[in-house]
Amino acid sequence: MKIKLALKFDLNTQMSTIDNIRNFAIIAHIDHGKSTIADRIIHKCGGLTEREMKEQVLDSMDIERERGITIKAQTVKLNYKAKNGKNYILNIIDTPGHVDFSYEVSRSLYACEGSILIVDSTQGVEAQTLANVYQALDIDHEIIPILNKIDLPASDLDRTKKQIEDVIGIDTDKAVPCSGKTGEGISEILEQIVNQLPGPEGEINKDLKCLLVDSWYDTYLGVVILVRVINGRLRKNMKIKMLSTNQDYIVEKVGVFTPKAKDIEELNTGEIGFITTGIKVLSETKVGDTICDATKALTDPLPGFKPSKPVVFCGLFPVDSSEYQKLKDGLAKLQLNDSSFSFEPESSSALGLGFRCGFLGLLHLEIISERLEREFDVNLLTTTPGVVYKVNLNNGKSIDLQNPSSLPDPTLIKSIEEPWIKATIITPDIYLGSLIKLCQDKRGIQTNLSYSGNRAVINYELPLNEVVFDFNDRIKSMTSGYASFDYEIINHREGDLVKLGILVNGEPVDALAMMIHKDFAQKTGREVCEKLKDLIPRHNFMIPVQAAIGGKIIARETIKGFKKDVLTKIHGGGATDRKRKLLEKQKKGKARSKQFGRVEIPQEAFIGVLKINKD
Asked: Is pLDDT above 70 for 610?
């Protein structure tokens, strides 16, 4: 009932109502307590009853709850009566903390005027804390620092405040100490939000202008669109236009999340809510698009967001070829709710039919693979993940290379460029030496090193291909989990890169081909050949396993064939003609088998090669 009262207001009092709206995002490093504090705020404002409350209310997927991470940004609208007696509408966006989902954070920030920055008072400032707060500062957000987990014995408020001031440069005089677990300090956070964060700007008398913040597919409603109203009013049954596609639609449903979905008649200036328009295909809704009144079309669209680009590619193949259609249907359904994920059909002589898929990072790949196996019951084989290379040809053209097996003939190539990243690593200084060595081994270039207390902040420029597979895992294991890592892609640079091909019995195995720096090619080729020698079963003939760069073999192992003693039935000594004829016949048979025999490479062999890269 309170929500309806807050939404029905007179035009003369619209400015005071807009002033009473607070749109803010919750940002932090992974595991610093964003979703837990969101739970406490929802409970404090009465969004859910005691019976309806559960942990991680805004994490709707099972996989989010099990892993304790947020993958999709979620919104909730709450009513809050402040100590000054005024009623406020709070629109919260709970954002992910992991680097792979930073695109969710960036677009969520554009829908808000302020952010609350949560820092774990036992861990201090970490890499993703920096990345997210800089995104917020870039769009002039007002930021309230929150020091979480004060109930833990290891909490150190003074040290954490000093780190925030030294590393980020934010004043911590009004930082709020709190505990998401016990609820201590939540009332102070709410008071800071209404007193420190600005209300939205905009005019209700102007023509409708909305920002398309997010969209997802619902089985019953079709595509659901999350919008932030910049100017005007968005009503049910209104005819709207999307400027990027120039298509008109009728608004069928308008609503807000409280956090349960609640239908309302209209969304007003400064508010965040959802609409449905009968759209059935997610590709018709471009995140960052401008929505306006179809009868009063705008000519000045909002700047929008940069579309998220996949940076890691790998092949997904069903272990059982009969599950191909099931895999295809599963990928199509996952893409409905994740526009950053892409896939296209691919065939491999060794693995059969599958798909070449693009992801935002290794965690994104892991999440998609796990969801396919869990939700669609598909047994998957994943090929070696790789990045997108830019291949410059002698004729002046350049192509994007996702799959190493598609590399053009080396005589046509002028140069190959690989993506580079700017990495930020924050670590206790006792681990600094081993981390610097790791970065140097990965062809890194150090750009900066600074200290805040006993923690070091290192900046490196690194090739993405060296980082994408196991870099984060190795940092965590080297530092007992105390270091944190964040990166952003900066540019493409020319590199001495080669395609490492693997040949089994003289036939190239495209699923095992990889792009690699020339300096590491021989070592990797030798390791792959040794692994395959152990994993490919023996046949009746000898099988050479080779690693090659172009036509040059750089490593080789031989799988010996089975031996059959054809002379056992012949008695007597000496090299008789009969014995010689039998041995010659066996030799010709082995040669014929080698020429026409098919080498079966088991799935374990491909998995084993993937483990080499990880080890």
From this structure: no
**In terms of residue numbers, what domain contains 173?**
2-196
CA atoms within 13 A on the CB side of 394: 6
Tell me, yes or no, whether 59 and 146 share the same domain: yes
Residue 345 main-chain phi, psi, to 5 deg: -65, 150
d(CA 289, CA 305): 8
Q: The CATH number of the domain where 420 resides is what? A: 3.30.70.240
Q: Rounded CA gap, 403 and 344, in Å?
A: 12
Euclidean distance between CA atoms 336 and 282, whole angstroms: 6
Q: Are 549 and 498 in contact (CB under 8 A)?
A: yes
CATH assignment of the domain containing 506:
3.30.70.2570
**What's the CA gap between 58 and 45, in Å, rounded?**
15
Is residue 305 in a domain? no
φ, ψ of residue 231 in degrees (nearest 5): -135, 155
- What lies within 8 Å, CB to CB, of 125 at 6+ separation is 119, 160, 163, 164, 167, 168, 426, 452, 455
Give residue 572's pLDDT: 62
SS3 (DSSP) at 40: helix
pLDDT tens for each residue of 426-450: 888 888 999 999 999 888 999 999 8
Q: Is there a contact between 148 and 120 (Cβ–Cβ < 8 Å)?
A: yes
Q: What is the DSSP letter of 164?
A: I
For residue 561, give the DSSP letter: P
532 inside domain: yes
